[in-house]
Amino acid sequence: MLSPIDLTVRQESSLLGRTNPVVKLAVALVWLVGLALIRDPVRPLVLALAAIVAGLVLGRIPRAKLIAGLAPLVAAAGSIALANLVFAAANTDPFAHEIARVGPLRLTAEAIVGASAIGARVVAIVATGVVFAQTTDPTRLVDALVQHARVPERFAYGALAAYRAVPQLGQDLGTLRQARRIRGVAGTWHPKLLVGLLVRAIRHADQLALAMDARAFGVGPRTTYRPVGRHWRDVIVAFGGAAIIVALVVG
Amino acid sequence: MYSKELGMTSTPTTPASTATSGGTSSAAESRWRTRDILVAAVIGVAFGVVFWAWGLAWGLFAPLNAARDLLYAVWLVPAVLAPLVIRKPGAALFAELVAAGVSALLGSAWGPDTLLSGFVQGAAAELIFAFTLYRLWSFPVLSLAAVASAAAAWLHDWVLYYQDVAIDVQLIRGLAMAVSAVVIVAAGSLALARSLRRAGVLEGFPTDG
Fold first, then answer.
1. Candidates A155, A164, A173, A189, partner chain B, best to mutate (most B CBs within 10 A)
2. Which of A149, A243, B58, B114 lies deepest, with the highest CB count within 10 Å?
């Protein structure tokens, strides 16, 4: 459950898997901005479909993984759409077209269109995120951020070293919960678990920092073990991604 | 103690900065030791895991509707907790971005928007700490930073997720988020930092004495 996403060799060697992660990140963020400008339910779904097809074909994401990744989408999109539907400004607008009345709540056609547009926007955002996460190796992402996006290397690699602790944190959490259960404390989830988890995490950080300092981390110039090169496929993904969102926003 | 030795080894040129500095900060202390980076990063990573789980649960809180925003500030804790512990310029932004990035890589429900959200939330808190020159860490300052972070999140969510919602509901949401920020982020971070200090893992970090 709580483990960093494992990419198969097929995913890593796919076109999207080998694309510079900074390019993919840029495309995802530009799509996000484009989505904020789109205000109908259809175009975001087209974008979501484009992302999913790209993930399956260009990213070779196994279908089961994609579906599992998309599952939280239902609750996320549903809850956001519901909030927009119930609290829509259009519902109190006397000129809006009334569709139904549920108790004190007046539902209008305008509110339904607006809510489904925003629900579709969430669907597109989630789909983009799943395809990005399922085609991007975190280490390569950090390499690319340092080499191509000028992210300070001490912070980038420090964060990556800390990220490696995620499976350990999951195990620690399990141990802490078992310890509570042995002591007979009722309730499996408690905010105090967070204190224990942070204590373990900070001890781990201290050890990592000591080990990294001992190897002269961040002192002097750095050599690159895994260069993330520039390639024609980066250009294609960048232009393809830009073309899709421009066509959708303008069209 | 182990952690004091660590401080000595990581900053051989400024041994003074390894001692607890009584809440003040000077130019020499604004440089991040490796330990500062790693501790801020693990706070970010731990909350990234929390965010990921919280994001999955968030949709299930939908029946609470606007009252759900009383729980919103869980997303904002690293932007105040990390600077409170580290007391270095940039800690709020760094920890919040790491947390957002980790939850995105774990498969967050919000995809690329986690990064944008993390950026605006961290940057808003950072701004308040910068105004104090990273010298004031009292409850009112932490509350101000938490509310600033919540305000940034509120604007961001308005534009992206609640575009059609009526203005009075937006204001109620904002109020709920501000209350949530003061209680969960400011008071919560103080309580967490106190617990961590009592557990002995924050030796070598500044305290208020």
1. A155
2. B114
Tens-binned pLDDT, residue by residue, of chain A (251 aa) = 466 677 888 888 889 999 999 999 999 999 999 999 998 999 999 999 999 999 999 999 999 988 888 887 777 888 888 888 888 888 877 777 787 777 778 888 889 999 999 999 999 999 999 999 999 999 999 999 999 999 999 999 999 999 998 888 888 888 888 888 888 876 667 778 889 999 999 999 999 999 999 998 888 787 788 888 888 999 999 999 999 999 999 97
Distance, CA of B133 to CA of B126 (rounded, Å):
10
**Domain definitions of chain B by residue range:** 32-199
Q: What is the CA angle A199-A205-A210, rounded to 5?
A: 130
Nearest to B10 among A76, A80, A209 (CB): A209
- A86/B159 touch (CB, cutoff 8 Å), yes or no: no
- Helix, coil or strand: residue A101: strand
> What CATH number does the domain located at B32-199 have?
1.10.1760
Query: Measured between alpha carbons, how far is B109 from B103 in angstroms, rounded to an integer?
Result: 9
ipTM for this prediction: 0.90
Contact A133 B55 (CB under 8 A): no
